[in-house]
Every structure is written in C-alpha cells, then in structure tokens.
C-alpha cells in the first residue's frame, strides 16, 4: 500500500491497494489526510514532518490503520516506511501489513537458509561421491578374486550399500544438476498425476478430494519438478496417515485457488496460484516444526529427510513459497506460485 502525501498529511496519490484496504474511493482518499486514517497519529505526524524537512531521508514506524470505509472490519496493524521524494517536500508512505512483513522476513530467511543448505549439500555430496566409487570398485574386484561363498556375501553387502548411498547422493545433487525445463503447466494435471500415484501405492483406506478452481489459467513452469514437489508433500501426508488408513477414514485434499495482489519476497504479483495439500493426520510433531524443511530431518524411521527439502527447492525455483499449518487432525501445506 503506497501513498504520496504532503507535509501536512494531505493525500496526493494512493494506489489501488491502499484504497481497497481503507474501503474508500480514490476521490475520498485523495481529498483526505493520512493522519485521519491512523490511530494515535502523533508519531506518524512527527515522522512525516521530519522526513519532509529532510531531517531524515527515510524513517520506519509501527502504526494501526483505521478502515473507515470497511464495515465491521478490525483496524489493521501496519509497518510504515516514510521516504522523502527528491526535489519535493512531499513524502512517500509505504504501509506493509505486519503479518505480510513477518512473512517477507520469514521468506528471506528461508531463502538464505536454503542457499546455505544447498551449498553444504552439494559440497558434501561431491565429497562422498568419489570414495563411494572406489569402495564399490574394490568390492567388485575382491568378489572376483574370492572363491568363498561367505566372502561373496560380504562383498555383495558392500556393493549394495554403496549403491544405496550412491542413489542418496544422486538425489542430493539432482536439484542442482537437472535442467529447468519451462513449458505451459496446468496445475490440475499435476495434481491428477500425483493423485494417481498416491492411490496406486495406497489403494485402500485412503480417499482423495479434488477442490479445484477451474478458472485457474496455465502458467510457465517445469511440470516434472512441480509433480515431484507435490508428490513429495502428498506422499509424506499419506505416510503420516497410517493409522487412519488402517481405520479406513484417511483423506488427502488437493485445493487450488487464485490469489490476487500477492507479495512474494519483495515483489508484488497481480495473480498467483495457491495450492493446498491437506490431510487429516496427527499433525506435524512440535519438535520438527522449525526444522521440517531441513535436509536429512525426518519424523519417520527409515526416511531420508529429503522430500520436503527438494519440494521447497523446486517451488523456490518457480519464485514461489511453501508453508504449512498443522494441528492434530489437520495439516495444510500451502504452495504459492506467481502466475503473472
């Protein structure tokens, strides 16, 4: 939400987002004062005056926005950024919802964390890859030389375990090595492919629900990466539903919606896709919530802890975000990807 105001707070310009939040027409907004729309405006008044007089070039503060044109709507806590306009005493006031600002900070931390994690994984995987080849080769040579059946069993164990670790290393390197193939993607085709794979693996006791917004347009993306990302999340959900599958009432819902005027990172997008993958399982354990997207962190015995890490990597490569909300009986993973 952006407004240009004079030193006295009179609104000279406001963008559509600002008008929408206030619930006022452009004419009413531009004939009013920004101080009239803020609870306890004294701090904002002093800040606008100081920036207008070039005491500061920019300043930040917390405020609560009144919404006079929006009936039965609570005031909105905002983070205000006040910048001076070059060659003018007018100032630009940018308002960010506190929740939005918190989300942006969280997204930035997640991106920084993901970059550091990817670099660590890439270096670790390369360090493991070379000796693994040597171990496997030595075991094969030993097997050829030996005549003992017991020795053959031992060498086979070495070879199989080396192959298993090689497969794990390949998965670690996959997001960095595979090309990003961009084409037109229909998110419902992605969901249907994932549904068929999940139901093939869990044919009894699990139902899937489609809650699709048919108006969603296609967008540019890597179809295979998106299938893998959604499959990883849905597969985790299915594995968490073991008890409900046995009881016959397990359910995974795929829900798509259009989101408008979405801010991802620091960029505003007119149109975005929202995909919810919801299950009625026991919920994400509290101990895992802060680390759930970390590599090699798994809440399941035998799990590699790579599914959600790869899912987040693939979604971030589409300039999107992935978050989750979880309580016992309901977990929702929300993917947001810009379409315009």
TrEMBL record:
InterPro entries: HATPase_C_sf, HATPase_dom, His_kinase_dom, HisK_dim/P_dom, HisK_dim/P_sf, Sig_transdc_His_kin-like_C. CDD domains: HisKA. It catalyses: ATP + protein L-histidine = ADP + protein N-phospho-L-histidine. Its EC number is 2.7.13.3. Gene3D superfamilies: 1.10.287.130, Histidine kinase-like ATPase, C-terminal domain (3.30.565.10). It comes from the Bacteria. The keyword Phosphoprotein applies. The keyword Transcription does not apply. Residues 123-340 form the Histidine kinase domain. One of its GO terms (molecular function) is phosphorelay sensor kinase activity. Keywords: ATP-binding, Kinase, Nucleotide-binding, Phosphoprotein, Transferase, Two-component regulatory system. This is histidine kinase. It comes from Piscinibacter koreensis.
């Amino acid at each position: 939400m952006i407004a240009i105001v004079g030193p006295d707070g009179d609104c000279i310009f406001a963008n559509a987002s600002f008008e929408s939040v206030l619930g006022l027409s452009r004419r009413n907004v531009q004939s009013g004062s920004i101080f009239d729309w803020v609870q306890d405006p004294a701090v904002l008044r002093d800040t606008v005056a100081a920036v207008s007089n070039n005491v500061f070039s920019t300043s930040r503060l917390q405020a609560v926005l009144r919404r006079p044109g929006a009936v039965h709507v609570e005031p909105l806590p905002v983070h205000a950024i006040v910048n001076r306009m070059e060659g003018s005493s007018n100032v630009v006031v940018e308002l960010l919802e506190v929740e939005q600002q918190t989300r942006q900070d969280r997204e930035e931390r997640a991106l920084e964390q993901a970059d550091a994690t990817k670099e660590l994984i890439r270096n670790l995987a390369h360090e493991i890859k070379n000796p693994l080849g040597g171990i496997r080769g030595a075991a094969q040579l030993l097997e050829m030389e030996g005549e003992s059946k017991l020795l053959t069993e031992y060498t086979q164990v070495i070879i199989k375990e080396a192959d298993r670790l090689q497969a794990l290393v390949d998965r670690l390197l996959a997001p960095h090595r595979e090309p990003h193939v961009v084409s037109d993607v229909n998110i419902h085709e992605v969901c249907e492919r994932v549904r068929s794979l999940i139901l093939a693996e869990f044919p009894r006791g699990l139902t899937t629900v489609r809650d699709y917004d048919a108006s969603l347009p296609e967008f540019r993306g890597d179809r295979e990466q998106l299938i893998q990302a959604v499959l990883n999340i849905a597969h985790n959900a299915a594995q968490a539903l073991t008890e409900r599958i046995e009881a016959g009432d397990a359910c995974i819902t795929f829900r798509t919606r259009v989101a408008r005027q979405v801010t991802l990172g620091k960029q505003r997008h007119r149109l975005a896709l929202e995909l919810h993958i919801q299950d009625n399982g026991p919920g994400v354990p509290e101990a895992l919530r802060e680390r759930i997207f970390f590599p090699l962190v798994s809440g399941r015995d035998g799990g590699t802890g790579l599914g959600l890490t790869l899912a987040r990597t693939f979604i971030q490569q589409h300039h999107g975000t992935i978050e989750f909300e979880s309580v016992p009986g309901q977990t929702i993973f929300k993917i947001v990807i810009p379409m315009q």
